[in-house]
Design goal:
Layout: E1 39-41, H1 48-64, H2 70-81, E2 82-86, H3 89-113, E3 131-134, H4 143-150, H5 158-168, H6 171-174, H7 180-194, H8 206-218, H9 220-239, H10 244-263, E4 267-272, H11 284-293, H12 301-312, E5 313-323, H13 334-337, H14 341-349, H15 356-359, E6 364-367, E7 386-391
Parallel strand pairs: 1-2, 1-4, 2-3, 4-5
Antiparallel strand pairs: 5-7, 6-7
Length: 397
């Protein structure tokens, strides 16, 4: 295996010697199950990558289901395949508009081919819920207590809700870097160890308390889904209230629950152009969070997003990103590339990330060079972002 700083040579695509391992049960040239192909962009902006993915998925549906109507194809793609998150609610709105218009175009084009003209673009279903989320901005510290004042029936869930609200209160800073599963898993794990909810719960809720405890013990995933559904229902009710403050809180918190749901699952393909920010420009909460949860990517925000995208990708899935090229050769990113041998045993014992060259294999890597710069040793430093794709599987060494 190459030492990390060997990538500092004249060709940053020194990843080439690593061999791509073919997924078991999916040999090259074989078919795949289209229904399981999900695409997530955790920094979607106005949805350019999702827009392109829409067209690719539409072509796949045409190939595998040639008789399926365009309206059904569009509906399935938006409902079952495309997922996106952005920290800016305006960007999320633009992404939703982009995908809605593209779906309408697909339907209109089919109707024109059938010579059944329509008077205007028609979306596949006006009530269709897209899998797009933004971060809530109105959930300040104390939001949990305010929620429980409005919904005292949820007090039985307080030990578990605390983790959700702790995550939501940081969402406007962290966006897709949030790891809500950790908060929930920690609370459920504590419940598993104690085998009971804390005392002080109304005796009328004894049956529900037993149900929660049993789910924590035997089916924590179901408990997590139940909890999110319960909170989402409360927030939806508030969003429709006449009280402006309650309505705004409900809408913001509802967005937060949608965000947590998207971040609590894994995807076949994760593709994005992440934000770039050196650690020196991060404010204290963001810097501390990145250092704690993504230590090998703490030098720049885009490096932390590399690690987050790998977490969001399911085993043997694909991660495709547009990043700066600095991670390939700067010493400050050495641990991101590959931990040295003397640190491996300790890292693996703690189940920590051991490096891109140890845990993934590069399938495609393109470094775009500024052609206005003379071909010298300095040209590598002025290279534009790298475009790369890695399968989320260990390299064969």
């Amino acid at each position: 295996m190459p030492e990390p700083d060997r990538l500092a040579g004249g060709n940053p695509s020194g990843l080439a010697p690593l061999r791509l391992r073919t997924d078991e049960g999916a040999p090259d040239g074989g078919t795949f199950n289209l229904s399981t192909l999900t695409v997530m962009d955790p920094c979607m902006g106005s949805g350019h990558f999702l827009r392109e993915a829409f067209d690719m998925l539409a072509a796949m549906y045409r190939e595998q289901h040639p008789k399926m109507p365009a309206r059904e194809i569009a509906g399935r793609i938006l409902r079952d395949h495309l997922y996106g998150i952005d920290i800016d609610p305006r960007a999320a709105q633009l992404a939703a508009l982009t995908l809605s218009l593209r779906a309408a175009e697909l339907i209109r084009d089919e109707e024109r081919q059938r010579r059944s003209p329509t008077s205007a673009l028609q979306t596949p279903n006006s009530k269709l819920q897209m899998n797009l989320a933004t971060t809530p901005t109105g959930l300040t510290p104390g939001a949990l207590e305010r929620h429980l004042e409005r919904h005292p029936e949820d007090r039985i869930f307080k030990p578990l809700l605390a983790g959700i609200f702790a995550a939501l209160e940081q969402a406007d800073i962290l966006g897709s870097l949030l790891r809500p599963g950790e908060h929930l898993d920690e609370a459920i794990g504590k419940l598993q160890r104690t085998q009971n909810l804390p005392l002080g719960v109304d005796g009328d809720d004894a049956a529900l308390r037993r149900t929660i405890t049993e789910l924590a013990k035997h089916d924590p995933a179901e408990l997590k889904a139940l909890l999110l559904d319960r909170v989402a229902q409360s927030f939806a009710a508030e969003a429709g209230e006449a009280d402006v403050a309650a309505a705004l809180f409900g809408r913001e918190a509802g967005e937060g629950v949608r965000l947590l749901r998207l971040l609590d699952r894994r995807y076949a393909v994760v593709v994005t152009n992440p934000p770039y920010m050196g650690s020196g420009n991060m404010d204290a909460p963001l810097k501390n969070y990145v250092s704690r949860h993504y230590p090998s990517g703490k030098r720049d925000l885009y490096a932390a997003f590399i690690l987050r995208c790998l977490e969001l990708c399911r085993p043997n899935g694909r991660v495709a990103m547009v990043t700066q090229q600095s991670w390939m050769f700067l010493r400050s990113f050495a641990d991101l590339r590959a931990l040295p041998e003397d640190k491996l045993a300790a890292a693996r014992k703690k189940e920590q990330f051991t490096g891109l060259l140890r845990e993934t294999v590069a399938q495609h890597l393109i470094v775009i060079i500024d052609t206005t710069v003379r071909s010298t040793a300095r040209s590598l430093e002025t290279a534009a972002p790298a475009v790369w794709v890695v399968p989320n599987a260990a390299a064969e060494l």
